[in-house]
Structure formats: C-alpha cells, structure tokens
C-alpha cells in the first residue's frame, strides 16, 4: 500500500494493521517527523519515501527520497500499489485523493478535507472511509428505510468550560482533549466543533441525501447511530481506535478480533449532550451547509486560514468560528468544475486574512 501521513496517529495505526496482515508498504509519505519516519523505514522497508521539505531529504535513511506535493502525485501515479491510505491533514490531501482515483486506486480516506472541499467531483465508490464515525454508519447500514443518520462528538477541550472564558482560550488550552491525543489541527477542530461539521458533510457525500445530525457522547464509545423509519435505533459501540476501520479497509471480510469489546458493566453509564450554538457557534450554519454541501470548500478554506491566524496569535479562539461564518455568508457561488474548488479556496483564504480585526 501507499501510506500518506505515516507519522500521524492514523498512519501509525495503519502500519500496525498492515504488519498484522502482512501487507507490503510500498510508499511512505510524511511531513516533518523524520525521526519516526526513519524508524518506520527500518521496520517496513518501503521502496519510495516522500517528505514535505527539501532540507529534510538528507536526513532520511533511504536511497529513494523525494519531497513536496508534486512528488506525492508522481509516486501515486508511478507505483504499482492499488491501495492508498490518505491520512494527510488539510487541503493538502485533496490532490492526492483525486490522483489516486484517476489512477484507479482504492482510497482509504482519513483526509476529511478531500470530501468537504471537493465532494461534488469525487467518485465515492472508490472511497473507503476510515473515520470511526463513517465506518460506524457503514457498519450499521441495512437494507431498511432510514430516517436519520447520527454521529457522535466528544465535545472537545472546552465542553465543560465556563462560556465566558472561551474568548481567552489559548492554543495550549485547545490541545487538552478529554478523550485522546491527536494532531494539533484536528484537536482545534474538535474544540470548535468544525471537525464534526466536516464529518457530517463527509457523511452526506458518502451516503447520499438524507437527514444527518450529531450529538455529544462524552466517553467516545458510541461512534454512530441510525434511526430507522420503523422507530428503532441502532448504535455502533467500539473502543476508540482507528485500527478497526483501517482493518476493514484492508479486508472487508474481517473475521478476527481487532479490539477488546466495550464492557458496558465497567462503563456503567453514558452521557449525551446537545451541541449548542452558544458554545460551538459554527453549528448555526449546519443546516444551510448540509443543504448546499458544495459550499464546504468555503468552510474548509476559512477554517484553515483562521487556524493559521489563531496559532500566530492574530485572532482569538472564538474568532475562528466568526471568520468561517463571515466567509460562508460572503461566498455563495458553487463550484461547477474541480478547478473552481482550488480557485475558491485561494479567494476565501485571502479574504479571511484580509478581514482580521
């Protein structure tokens, strides 16, 4: 397989599963964690390695090392692997997804931004989602009429904060996730609830038109639920680990134990909460965005620009959502071609950065 984002939490789990199933790792692509990359090279012996920056090439213990986005696209085109795990973070992951589909490869997709920004132009029949929530929905789906699909959220770092304190929240504060440790951007997105908005959009593209919603489940043991038209509801319980959806992406006929079962007697009780706009202002555009999912490119671009400004301390935490909503209200034209996605992305980023108060 080709693994994009090998040193992130999803990439690390993908390699654990690949080793378990004896799968050859032909390509490793990583950003900046060269130390871990070298450990992965030693263990998995890839044919080709790609890193983000030219200055890191010499630090990699391999004789075929390339760098940059063009190199990623070239190895996708040139290598023989028919299976690619895209665990890159951000809009950077879109072109590799498009290239992989163009080359007839199956994509195990963890890069949310691919579908969020470009779902109109992606053949989802070539996509196997490996987010826990979409895997859960896929797992639960039966040939019965569906009323609503529901995914769950942890609530992020500020689910229990006093609302008055949120405007003073720091970057360090956003990273104190109550349930797990993941990358910087996704943990910020969890705190703003943008991550869950993105997952609803992904679900819309993956499973088609219908009613979608999300609620907070504080222990992250339920990942998805489906309300059927007959009045029944099913839920997907699993301990939080990316290894289960990755394993199914590698082998849909999974017949061996991947995770320990959830012991409900030890869990004791579960807590559910509504996602409230006062704490998560981005939620106010949910219905309009799901009705017009092609506008996801605007939300994604504004979010990435806002996070960049938040990290550099040009705006406060609550300004991330304000920036996204302002851009969403301004940019209403839908992309009519895949090239429009990239031009709208540039326009929105420029607008967001020009409108910093």
Can you put this structure into words, describing what you see?
The strands form 2 sheets. A 7-stranded parallel β-sheet has the order 4-3-2-1-5-6-7, sandwiched between helices. A 5-stranded mixed β-sheet has the order 11-10-8-9-12, with helices on one face. Helices cover 42% and strands 15% of the residues. The chain folds into 2 domains: 128 residues, NAD(P)-binding Rossmann-like Domain (Rossmann fold, 3-Layer(aba) Sandwich), CATH 3.40.50.720; 158 residues, no CATH class. It is globular. The N and C termini lie far apart (46 Å). It contains 15 helices and 12 strands. The chain has 357 residues and is α/β, with parallel strands linked by helices.
